[in-house]
Amino acid sequence: MTLPNCDEIIELIPAFVLGALDADEAARVAAHVAACPRCRAEAESFRDVMGLLPYAAGSLDPPPHVKRQLFARIAAVSENSSTYAVAQPRRPAARTSLPGRWFAPMLAIMLALIVGLGAVTFEARGRADAMAAELATNRQIMRSMEAQIAEVRQTAQTAQMQLAASQRELNETRIQLAASQRELQEIQASSSTDEQLVSFIAAPQTVSQLLGTTERAPEEASARMFMQPGHNRLVLLIYGLKSAESGKVYRLWLAKEDQAIAIGTVTVGPDGVAEFVVDAPEPMDAYNQVMITLDEVDTAAQPSEEVIFEANL
Ligand SMILES: [Zn+2]
Prior knowledge:
The chain is of the alpha+beta class and 313 residues long. The protein has two domains: 6-135, no CATH class; 207-312, Immunoglobulin-like, CATH 2.60.40.200. The chain has five helices and nine strands. It has a five-stranded antiparallel sheet with strand order 2-9-8-5-6, with no helix packed on it. The chain starts with 5 loop residues before the first helix and ends with a strand. Bound molecules: zinc ion (ZN). Zinc ion binds next to helix 1 and helix 3.
């Protein structure tokens, strides 16, 4: 079904859909479109095209070169449409006035917008896809770097733990070495004491003297002293004496002109034996008496009453 003025109305439809007609003309087209299925279909298909515009545009800002191309295309189409309008002199003035002025440029603008913004969208989507791919790659690189850093950290931690363990071992070894060195020194010292003792006692110029025991000495106890004329050294060998009880010591005294001098303490072993080597402050000839007392540990100023051995020199 075609109404008599359909051709005229169809030319006005794009302007009508875009809202570019004046009120009277818009009312005329609206009334026709309401009654005419063919023109209504035309108007609806235009609305569909219009409906694509916001979707195509999105919220993207077209890049400058696309914008320039777009405006150039619109300008070119507008020029052509003027020519087109002039080149249609056969149409009556009433019919050519609006469609001639509006339809071609409108359609051109719309197409240009759709194509241009579609291109912008396509280009933007392409860029977005590329960026997303790049981002994914960067994320993967970052993750692998993080994994490597974690691995390095763990290795460093393990190394630190091993280092700490090694240092502890080294310290233990040092302590053991120090202990061994002390033991060795003690052994060397005691063996050298033994050697000195033996060589001193065996020397031809050495004289020995048995010390007298008091009633405080055990019955089996004996003490012998070795010395050399003109020398300060004194060697003492004691047998059969009990270890000093706690808080007491055996102390050796040398007396000169009734003045007793504490020379040192004598340690008696569990076997009742004591070996004592000491260098007196003066040659042994200077002293006229020797004495071994059982003293309190801290009374070295004067010999106690508890004399165990004594002898005049
Ligand atoms: Zn119609």
